[in-house]
Amino acid sequence: MAIKYTVKWGDTLWDLSRKYGVSIDAIVKANKQIKDPNWIYTGDTLIIPTGGSSSGSSSSGSSVSKTPSYESGKPSYKPSNTLSSLEKQLQQLEAQRPSEYNSQYSEQISQLVNQILNRPEFSYDLSSDPLYQQYRQQYMQAGNLAMRDVQGQSAALTGGYGSSYATTAGSQAYSQYLSQLNERVPELYNAAYSRYESQQQALLDQMNTLMNMDSTAYQQYRDQVSDYQKQLDYYKDQYRAQQEQEYKQYLDKLEAWQEDREYGYQKTQDKQEQSRWEEEMRRKWAQLYQ
């Protein structure tokens, strides 16, 4: 069962709930036009679901709300879908943070540096020089030929008999070729030293090439980190601005609710004071005319 009630000045849902013994929620559900439980307007017609009783007291077992209407509807802070989406994007970006730079050339560079620093000092050994051995064989062969030619020529002059002169002349011819071989030694030494220097320079060039490649790779890594940081900062700024805006809106709503609450409380107090005054006046009039 329900009754129709015309709102008077000063009425609140809390007053009506106490008067008819029904909860505020029940009144709100029965009146879809109520958008805010804190506000009802003079002259409006409300449906009061009394549950079979229209008396001022509630029947046994009925639920009566003790919460004043001005205490309900307190705003709460809840992040919007936009803010939640920005937060999710930030979490995804954090998970994609570039790892520390790991050079793919560091091991090769380290090996080259070790090879350069620990390279033995230059030394030259004729016996281990293949070019010297080749020259030696050539000059010794040529010296032997020259020695036999000189000895043959000397023997021809003496009727085919050998002589100490021929032997000496042949030895001299052989020695001349050996002397020419010795004259080649400085040339061979310089050639070996040049090869040593070239090998050293080749190692340095190889190391410089690897270092340049590593520097290029590191710069690419720094560019990647810079792009990532710019994107991260952008979404952080977006998130911070959105959060500040939403929280300010929440504080504004909370402040407005508190003002309405204070107004509703004062209104209720004034009405209660008026009711007590009227009751006191009725009591006095009753005493005067008894």
Task: Please give a structural write-up.
It is a single chain. By secondary structure, this protein is mainly alpha-helical. Helix content is about 65%, strand content about 5%. The chain has six helices and two strands, in the order βααβαααα. It has a two-stranded antiparallel sheet. The longest helix has about 120 residues, at about 165-290. The protein is rod-shaped.
Concise overview:
The protein has helices at 13-20, 24-30, 81-95, 106-117, 130-157, 164-288; strands at residues 2-6, 45-49. The chain is mostly helical.
Count the E strands: 2
Helix content: 55-70%
Instruction: Provide the succession of SSEs.
Output: EHHEHHHH
pLDDT < 50 stretches = 52-65
Envelope shape: rod-shaped
Helix and strand composition category = mainly alpha
Count of alpha/pi helices = 6
Rounded radius of gyration (Å): 57 Å
| Biggest sheet, spatial arrangement of strands | 1-2
What is the arithmetic mean of pLDDT? 83
Distance between the termini: 39 Å
Profile the largest sheet.
2 strands, antiparallel
Give the percentage of residues in beta strands: under 5%
